[in-house]
Amino acid sequence: MALRHIALFRWSEGTTPAQVAEVEEVLARLPEAIPELDAYTFGSDLGIGSDTFDFAVVADVADEQAYAAYRDHPDHQAALGVIRPLLAERASAQIRTGGAG
Amino acid sequence: MALRHIALFRWSEGTTPAQVAEVEEVLARLPEAIPELDAYTFGSDLGIGSDTFDFAVVADVADEQAYAAYRDHPDHQAALGVIRPLLAERASAQIRTGGAG
């Protein structure tokens, strides 16, 4: 039973495409830097739903210990340093997933 | 390039474990009923984060057309009929994923 961390972001008014591109760049480096990440998907909302958030991150890890390793990893903390100043709203949850990874 | 739909729910005060179990039951039937669902994970928040939502659903489908088929499927609409009366808050996004499914 693996663990899936989900975070949705709504950007502050005035956030630029260049700032979102920088978020994507820092997140793209995390799978290589953090071996606990079994899968890592993120990206901007596609604009096909109503009242959607602007950006989503889904991190698949083995268990609570691996999640804590991801959460506290200095490269992840550095990514949060890029993300937090842009945030108007954040929604998150951690759920159990059936598979092995 | 596949599509990932993410929805987070915060339950209204007074929502019971039996009501959440009913949500899980109706969602558990969807992968068999809706062939467009390549993967479907859902469940209650594990309680390891701060200010988390209560429940998450992640649906992986091939593309926008498959997402619309899932969204509009009568069994999914019936599940929403169980979920909506319990909702205090909902957050969602649809993102592109790199893989094939």
Q: Describe it for me?
A:
2 copies of one chain form a homodimer. Chain A is built from 4 helices and 4 strands. Chain A has helices spanning 17-28, 30-33, 64-72, 74-83; strands at residues 2-11, 39-44, 55-61, 87-97. In chain A, helix 1 (17-28) packs antiparallel against helix 4. The longest helix of chain A is centred in the N-terminal third of the chain and has 12 residues, at 17-28. The first copy, chain A, is α+β, with helices and mostly antiparallel strands and 101 residues long. Chain A starts with a strand and ends with a strand. Chain A has a 4-stranded antiparallel beta sheet with strand order 2-3-1-4. Chain A has one domain (3-96): Alpha-Beta Plaits. The model of chain A has no long low-confidence stretch (mean pLDDT 95). Chain A binds chain B through residues 3-6, 8, 41-46, 48-49, 51-56, 58, 64, 67, 91-98, and chain B through 3-6, 8, 41-46, 48-49, 51-56, 58, 64, 67, 91-98.
